[in-house]
Q: What sequence folds into this?
DNA sequence: GCCAACGTTGGC
DNA sequence: GCCAACGTTGGC
């Protein structure tokens, strides 16, 4: 029988959200606009998400994030902090090329090309939100209370989003579901 | 600018 | 393997 033990904080697992009806899964990528903002991403049309140097995020990039998955592009450390728009994964995890580049700030001499330590995925811009969905707005929506982004101490720069959260946020952003 | 939360490093 | 010190992230 269940006892008080179950009152121990159930830490929401940051891995493996169930796929949505489409089989596609959803993610949120954080970026500081001073380093790579959504404007720039829109102009580029496509980018490699590299330079991630955290093992939990690495595991997602390497194992979980697949072609066609949906991505929310989020501005962190910004005014305002907000989801700016959506992207789609166009290439699943492969070796993070910046790790092998001695001139890159993300260079990691310990990453072996035959057994890379770090991974990147490629994403393409799909659509900007009609208006960014700010962090304050997200916090005000009861259905989004469990979002990884909004959890205390959550710092993961690549994180899972449930299909319900995805739908809610697209609606707030004014983007049609069928993208 | 502050600082809580978290991850990593390195001495033991 | 423990854990204190340190560095980083990122919201406030």
A:
């Amino acid at each position: 029988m269940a006892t008080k033990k179950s009152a121990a904080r159930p830490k929401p697992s940051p891995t493996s959200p169930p796929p949505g009806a489409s089989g596609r899964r959803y993610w949120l990528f954080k970026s500081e606009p001073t380093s790579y903002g959504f404007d720039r991403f829109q102009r580029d049309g496509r980018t490699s998400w590299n330079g991630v140097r955290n093992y939990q995020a690495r595991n997602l990039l390497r194992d979980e994030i697949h072609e066609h998955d949906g991505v929310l592009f989020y501005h962190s450390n910004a005014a305002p902090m907000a989801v700016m728009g959506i992207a789609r994964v166009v290439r699943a995890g492969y070796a993070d090329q910046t790790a092998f580049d001695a001139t890159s700030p993300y260079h990691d001499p310990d990453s072996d090309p035959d057994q890379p330590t770090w991974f990147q995925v490629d994403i393409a811009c799909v659509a900007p939100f009609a208006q960014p969905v700010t962090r304050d707005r997200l916090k005000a929506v009861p259905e989004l209370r469990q979002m990884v982004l909004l959890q205390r101490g959550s710092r993961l720069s690549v994180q899972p989003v449930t299909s319900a959260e995805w739908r809610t946020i697209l609606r707030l952003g004014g983007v049609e579901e069928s993208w």
